[in-house]
Amino acid sequence: MTSTPRPDAFGASRAARTLGVGLLAAVWVLATPSTAHASLMSPEMEDTVAKWIAIFALFFVPVVLIVVFWLVHILPEQIAHKRHHPQFEAIRTLCLLSLVFGGLLWPLAWIWAYTKPVGYKLAYGTDKHPDYFKEKGLPDPSDDLRDRLASLEARGVPANDLDAIRADVAAIEARVAATTTAGEVK
Asked: How many angstroms separate the CA atoms of 108 and 93, rounded?
């Protein structure tokens, strides 16, 4: 048969009595004054540490912040270069202007670096920077078409293939010329 703890003369069990005594001891320790130490270091050591913290805060932190600010602001330029963006130089210029204007233009440069210029491909026939073609050893599409045909002829491409290409180019040029003169008359 199990027995229940019997209350003592005061009506409290042994665990409650132990808790009460421990609580009174904690209150007594916290309430009695003792010597206080403001620091773990001596006053001379505190001065030395404070001097080095001040030197660090005045010289090292601003340099690090300026470098981080600069590195963040050239990210769009690096992205545009990596993606062979055809307007890479303009994005670089916008990044530099963003540095001057305190970062206000940086989001525009970031968005521009990730976009594909639609009108650029219409105007120049490609959406890649000319350096892309140099790196890959490809002919630059912005070169004159006649120069490219002459280089193909010099490499030994069969004449009948080149004549067909020249005929296609002449037909396209005639169509474009007819469209522009008809457009001017109206």
From this structure: 12
| pLDDT tens digit sequence for 61-106 | 999 999 998 898 899 999 998 888 888 889 999 999 998 898 889 8
Nearest to 165 by CA among 183, 181, 149: 149
pTM of the model as a whole? 0.47
Cα dihedral across residues 116, 119, 122, 128: positive or negative: negative
Determine the Cα–Cα distance for residues 62 and 31; give it in Å rounded to an integer: 46
Q: What does the pLDDT look like over 43-69, one tens digit per residue?
A: 899 999 999 999 999 999 999 999 998
Asked if 86 contacts 124 with a C-beta cutoff of 8 angstroms, the reply is yes
Q: Which two tokens mark 98?
A: 């963003």
What CA–CA distance (Å, rounded) separates 66 from 74?
Answer: 12
Spatial separation of the C-alpha atoms in residues 174 and 171, rounded to whole Å? 5
134 token code pair: 């140099």
Q: Cβ–Cβ contacts within 10 Å for residue 16, how many?
A: 13
Q: Is 98 exposed, middle or buried (0-12, 13-18, 19+ CB in 10 A)?
A: buried
CB atoms within 10 A of CB 132: 17
